[in-house]
Amino acid sequence: MPDDAPLLSVRDLRVSFRTFDGQADVLQGVNLDVPRGTRVGLVGESGCGKSVTMKTIMGTLATPPARVTHGQIMFDGQDLLTMPAARRNRLKGTDMSMVFQDPTTSLNPVFRVGHQMEDIVRWSDRRRGIQRNHKARKARVLEVLEMVRLADGERIYDAFPIQLSGGMRQRIIIGMALLNEPRLLIADEPGTALDVTTQDEILRLMDDLVREEGLSLLMITHNLGVVRQMTDHVYVMYAGSVVEDSPTAELFDNPSHPYTKALLACVPKLDGTATYEGIGGSLPDYTDPPAGCRFHPRCPHATDRCLTRPPAFTVRPGHTAACWLHEPEAHA
Amino acid sequence: MEYLFFVVRRLLWSVVVLLGLSIVIFTIARVVPGDPARIALGPLAAQEQVDKLRTEMGLDAPLPVQYARYAGGLLQGDLGRSLLTQQSVNSDVRQTFPATLELVLATLILALAIGLPLGVLAGRYKDSLFDNLGRFVALFGVVTPSFFIALLLQLLAGYVLQILPVSGRLSPNLEFEANRTGLLLIDSLIAGRMDVFGDAVRHLILPTIALAAATIGQIARLTRSSMIDVSRKDYIEASRAFGIPNRITTFTYMLRPSFIPTLTVLGLEFASLLGNAFLVEMVFGWPGMASYGVRAIMQNDFNAVMGVVMVTGLFFVLINLVVDVLLGYVDPRIRIKGSQS
Amino acid sequence: MSLTTPRADRLRAVRRAWYRFRRNPAAVVGLAMVLLVFVVAIFAPLVAPFPEHVGGFVDFRNRHQPPSWTHPFGTDNAGRDILSRVIFGYRISLTLVVFVLGLAVPFGVLLGLLAGYYGGWVETVIMRLTDVFLAIPALVMALAITAALSPTLLNSMIALALLWWNWHTRLIYTTVASLKHEEYVEAAKVAGASDFHILFRELLPNCVSVISVKTTLDAGFVILIGAGLSFLGLGAQPPTPDLGTMVSSGANYLPEYWWGSIFPGLAILFTILGFNLLGDGLRDLLDVEVN
User: Does A78 share its domain with A90?
Assistant: First the structure.
């Protein structure tokens, strides 16, 4: 395996759900790469499929009602979707780990923080054949609590989640993901449930940790500010597929997909030049999606061509947009 | 430390509830038409006699004074005297309560031993054959009147199959006095009388099943639905994502939070269990508080009735105290909040 | 996720509800059972094969007849048709349900609304009172009250109503306590709406689904406890055909004449089961918690 191959590579991932109203194709061919040592963002509004993508990668998607109908998820050269369950389980919480979103619901309320963290270490040790006693495990937990800048680790180790503030719990959740020195960290909008100042601290902490530990990061968010601050490369999702991907700076300078443009127009600017504009309409019904490009009913540039689904066209090197406006012939 | 505060608070609260209960019962007893003194002496007694007894019984004092005397008696564990037999209600209760206690405790143990695993497994293997069967059984446990189950069991196991006794606590040919705890099962073991023990168990089986059916159903249904609720929580997804094995996730991380609603409702359910115990005791001729209470009711012996209700209420409050203390142990949220506010 | 038109949303909600109801055959069966009991009870004189057997009718030549085509449930110790008496017995059971819940539910709901909305000492007084009443085993207390007032159907209904309101108070209290900070309530307050308006026009309508589920489930349990009371001889007095009384008087003739007890017992079971299935179905349908 060459080292320049991406650590995580998702190819044409399709997931559908059985629902009250019939089959819903929630992911229709998602492609995305997380190269080693980079920070990648996956951005989109609520319900665009980013959480489903994340859960599919982590293997926590409930099946049924969901079903992976097609695609590959390559992690370090191996396909997660076809490997034996035991092998995949060995990766969970160790090589790839996850930072959960909501500090109020992601910690078990009836077990002490130390118990929960130590259990993660204990069971991953078991799977990897590492011998460590309680004392060594506890030492590791305390070490990680220090890593996430929590003073007074001993007290936190013995505390129940309810005795801690939201910001502290969010740090613990980050710490849980770091316990086994993962290579890939998947983060689901960490800190959105917190106030802005605390969220900012959390994000800065994550950023530091990613750099210090040399992690690859896949950050899922709906917040463009977070994307700009935290990522090197960004994927924009709309209604179950990636509509644009680009280096982060480039995306903000030169948004190419009409959806991305509209999304950026929604962000108020500090200099007050831009006026706030919403995107007309809403996400489509997944059980009865529009034909072709799913954005076309809301798109100001829609033409008859949009009834056929556009492939990802290269706008510049490393920057693609799935929109007929960027079809090479159209420029020629 | 916080746990101790919590327990003390619950204790104080139990006293308040009992105080409230005594007021409610006293009020009911005093709004009842009819003169207790007249009832005690019968319709033929002369009016002077009745008046004299009224004074003796303190019935001519103002109501608050009467209540104060009554409550004072209760605090010393005195339930008053039976209007009819003039015996102290305490000694009557002392004689009948152990039988009820034995039945109710056996029922609780059976209900937990069957209801919990049933609910946990049904919730874990939702929509499986086991789940559907279990739900069916649980539903019938909940909706069938306990006295009807008791009759069916009597008919089936007692008369048709003739494998178990259908009445009483002990066969009449066995000589045994339960004089330590009053519980036959325990006292016979202490005395080393295995014949008595076996006989008592055989007598206990049918009433216990009849009484437990509803509670088993309730526990199983609740545990099942809370297992399913908890399985959808973020922290369970997290536990899976961190690679904790499924059995640990299910039987540690899901189980403990799932018990919280079950325990809470079990405490409240205990009231209907006590009520049903009255019915089941009547069907099986169980020499507990029910037959004593029902007889007292039929004869308008209101002091005895008040005594029975008070003891039943005390029993309920005690069980709920135990449940709350357990809840506080299982759920840190309860004990931490409970010790602060 | 969607910002479609309200009409489309409503349609979708109805479709979804119908989908769930169809997928829940138990609820459909429960509804059918409850309807059957109501119809049979209302038209009892027309439905019952021997309506004259309901009162103090005696026919000793026909006593303890086993089930047959003429008497599908057999006859009792006075030679009366048990099926006819069961059908009339449903009238008593349903009267009990309507009376008890008709008194207890509005009262309990009102207290719950007040406690949840006002908080403070109103909440303390009401909820502590509720707690005290929770500590009283309903059947035991109903026994005491009924006995004190003399055992009649009316008195057992009064006793049950006195002991039933607190469950609804608790339920509505928790519902309202979580609703009162919703924006529409705050908005109504800011707009200067009266407390009366907020309580009965804003909060109460949002409790309707909880109340209806709880009430349906309760109907079964009122019948259950009522049957227990009359089983002990504290309900409607003979010769009125009360199902619980029939079970207990039939029990005197076990095991030979088992039908005298078993059929009325099954009849009780049938109604309670019906209300329970329907209540569970409604709960899933309306997606509410009632514990």
Answer: yes
Q: What is the pLDDT of residues A59-92, one digit of tens each?
A: 877 777 788 888 888 888 888 888 887 777 778 7
CA atoms within 13 A on the CB side of B18: 24
B270-324, pLDDT tens digit by residue?
888 988 998 999 999 999 988 888 888 777 777 888 888 888 888 888 888 888 8
Integer CA distances (angstroms), C91 to A246, C14, C94, C250, C268, in order: 75, 34, 5, 20, 12
Number of compact structural domains in chain A = 2
Q: Give residue A1's pLDDT band: very low, low, confident or very high (50, 70, 90).
A: very low
The beta-carbon neighbor of C139 closest among B28, B272, B305 is B272
Q: Which of residues 103-132 of B touch C (CB under 8 A)?
A: none
Q: What is the ipTM of this complex?
A: 0.86
- Which of B234, B237, B242 should we substitute to test contact with A (largest number of A Cβ atoms within 10 Å)? B242
Give the CATH number for residue B296.
1.10.3720.10
Question: How far is residue A204 CA from its own chain's centroid?
Answer: 17
Residue B161 lies inside a defined structural domain of this protein? yes
Inspect the interface and report whether the beta carbons of B279 and C139 lie closer than 8 Å.
yes
Q: B81 - beta bridge partners?
A: B88
With H, G, I as helix, E, B as strand and everything else as coil, classify residue A245.
strand
Asked if C255's CB is within 8 angstroms of B297's CB, the reply is no
Domain range C24-286, CATH class: mainly alpha
pLDDT of C38 > 90? The answer is yes
Q: Is A314 helix (H, G, I), strand (E, B) or coil?
A: strand
pLDDT at C87: 92
Are residues A131 and A278 both part of a single domain?
A: no
Choose between B75 and C115: higher pLDDT: C115
In a domain, B314, yes or no: no
| CA nearest to A10, candidates A33, A26, A41, A38 | A33
Q: What is the pLDDT confidence band of residue C42, given thresholds at 50, 70 and 90?
A: very high
**Do residue B235 and residue A105 have CB atoms under 8 angstroms apart?**
yes
Tell me, yes or no, if C248 comes closer than 8 A to chain B by beta carbon: yes
Chain C segment 165-224 residues within 8 A of B by beta carbon are 220, 224
Minimal Cβ distance to A110: which of B242, B243, B257: B257
Number of domains in chain B: 1
Give this prediction's pTM.
Answer: 0.83
Domain that holds residue A304: 8-95+182-331
The whole domain housing B232 covers 93-301
Q: Which two tokens stand for residue C291?
A: 């514990």
Between the CA of residue B290 and those of B93, B275, B304, B307, what are the distances in Å?
10, 9, 12, 12
Which of A137, A159, A181 is where one domain is finished? A181
Does A2 fall in a domain? no
Q: Which of A20, A282, A285 sits opposite C19 (nearest CB)?
A: A20
